[in-house]
UniProtKB/TrEMBL annotation:
This is Nucleolar protein 58/56 N-terminal domain-containing protein. GO terms for cellular component: box C/D methylation guide snoRNP complex; small-subunit processome. Residues 7-71 form the Nucleolar protein 58/56 N-terminal domain. It comes from the Eukaryota. GO terms for molecular function: snoRNA binding.
């Protein structure tokens, strides 16, 4: 069974969801991501934006970001993930990459997604941020 990694990126403007195209052998993949994360063209060859949801207002953005920082799944995040995260199948298990272990634990508890915040995930998030 293969694993498909999708990464949640929280930004002041909204939520982004990115698919990592080749995350099979993570131990070999981390150095590769580190070497290309500052080159947008090369980085785009392994990471693809699959969904974006802008916040409705400044107040809405603040509510969402405060919830994230407290490890709480805001209803906007819940709807965004439920709508956009691919479903796991017999052929491919979907893993959701997150920046923080607390929000990962909450997402796993509320939505049942397998979450990861280590290995290649911080490098992918660093590349997205760059």
């Amino acid at each position: 069974m293969s694993t498909q990694l999708v990464v949640l990126f929280e930004h002041a403007s909204g939520y982004g969801l990115f698919r990592v195209k080749e995350a099979e052998d993570v131990s070999k993949f981390v150095p590769h991501v580190q070497s290309i994360q500052t080159d947008p063209i090369k980085f785009q060859s392994i990471v693809e934006l699959i969904a974006f949801s802008p916040f409705k207002s400044g107040t809405n953005a603040l509510d969402n970001i405060n919830s994230i920082s407290e490890g709480i799944v805001h209803e906007d995040l819940h709807l965004f993930l439920e709508t956009n995260v691919p479903k796991s199948s017999k052929k491919a298990k979907v893993v959701l990459g997150v920046a923080d272990s607390r929000i990962g634990a909450s997402i796993q508890e509320v939505l049942g997604y397998s979450c990861q915040h280590t290995e290649v995930v911080p490098e992918v998030i660093r590349g997205i941020r760059y």
